[in-house]
Amino acid sequence: MTEVSRRGFLRAAAAAAALGHHAARAADPPKSSGGRPSGPTVIASANGLPATAKAAELIAQGVAPVDAVVAGVAIVEADPTDHSVGLGGLPNERGVVELDASVMDGPTHNSGAVAGLQRIRHPAQVALRVLRRTDHAILVGAGALEFARAHGFEEENLLTDEARRIWLKWKESHSDRDDWIPPVDAPDAGAVRRDSGSVLHTYGTINCDALDARGNLGGVTSTSGLSYKLPGRVGDSPIIGAGLYVDNEVGAAGSTGRGEAVIKNCASFATVEQMRAGKSPTDACLAALGRIVAHVKDARLRRADGRPNFDVKMYALAKDGRFGAASIWSGARFAVYSNGHNRLEDAGYLFDRPEDMKG
């Protein structure tokens, strides 16, 4: 493993950030004569096109941004084919789906979150209830479920047949030191790799942030977390300042990807602070990612070239309607609704994705 100094990391990150920003910059949306967009602006992770459209529709009807984004991500939480969140999310190592979510309201600077929530399809809605109906910032595990029950949320089995099949394949192929084996009629039964490379871990999440015509912001991040995680593991999504942060005087930011790296660098808070200091949303995302890269010290998390062997994506929306996103590695996209149009745009990046990380 090549050793790279912290100074070398920072130099490489800074240089790559400049190139990446130039190569893939999200265009600033047209502004109204008052300086802000004439209608709602909503951004989300790439799986969030339905969420951005729904949130924009609701904001245009007068719904507050925080309520609108929670309603938007509910579409993705309810989609059994999206294995990163809600119904159909990939489970922990025991086959149990555990969900995390946070919300933050710009005008009040209040937040709510749940972590390790089981059997409730819409964790973001529960997080919004925590914001509105408690004096707490976060509820976890059994307490979060009890709170959800008290507010009438219906319990259900969130592990779909497809998610169960994916989990079983992981159980049967990730190790040769247990008694789990694949079925004899499986297409690759005779040549299943018995290591962690056979079924990759998945970092899946949806982040969605919105701005209304009055300059008010709201944000949400919802996830089923790292697939096959240790029971009780909590990522960045329900932690304010890590997976989500909103300051109504500056902007909003959120993240997807390796949550442990985001937590250790308070990445969403850092992104908003970079915008406060004058950086554009995309540059603010790149700066936060550069900090993450500079702090990757463990050899197990670095490639031979010293760069991270994982990805993180940051999303940012400024109070004046500018927006942007960036990732450590190239190829990321993000969802945007602005100026009446809903679409995917390319994100900025620090490094070109190498061939061995594609696919």
Blueprint of the fold:
Blueprint: H1 6-23, E1 41-45, H2 49-60, H3 65-77, E2 99-105, E3 110-117, H4 123-133, E4 139-140, H5 141-150, H6 161-173, E5 203-211, E6 217-226, E7 244-247, E8 251-257, H7 259-264, H8 267-276, H9 281-294, E9 312-318, E10 323-329, E11 333-338, E12 341-346, E13 348-351
Parallel strand pairs: 3-4, 10-13
Antiparallel strand pairs: 1-5, 1-11, 2-3, 2-6, 5-6, 7-8, 8-9, 9-10, 11-12
Helix pairs in contact: 1-9, 2-3, 3-4, 8-9
How does this model look, in words?
Strand 2 and strand 3 (110-117) form a beta hairpin. The protein has an 8-stranded mixed sheet with strand order 4-3-2-6-5-1-11-12. A 5-stranded mixed sheet has the order 7-8-9-10-13. It has one domain (6-159, 202-351): 4-Layer Sandwich (Glutamine Phosphoribosylpyrophosphate, subunit 1, domain 1), CATH 3.60.20. The protein contains 9 helices and 13 strands. The protein is globular and about 60 Å long. It is of the alpha+beta class. Mean pLDDT is 88; it is low at 1-34 and 188-199. The chain has helices at 6-23, 49-60, 65-77, 123-133, 141-150, 161-173, 259-264, 267-276, 281-294; strands at 41-45, 99-105, 110-117, 139-140, 203-211, 217-226, 244-247, 251-257, 312-318, 323-329, 333-338, 341-346, 348-351.
What's this entry about, in short?
It contains 9 helices and 13 strands. It has helices at residues 6-23, 49-60, 65-77, 123-133, 141-150, 161-173, 259-264, 267-276, 281-294; strands spanning 41-45, 99-105, 110-117, 139-140, 203-211, 217-226, 244-247, 251-257, 312-318, 323-329, 333-338, 341-346, 348-351. The strands form 2 sheets. The protein has an 8-stranded mixed β-sheet. A 5-stranded mixed β-sheet has the order 7-8-9-10-13.
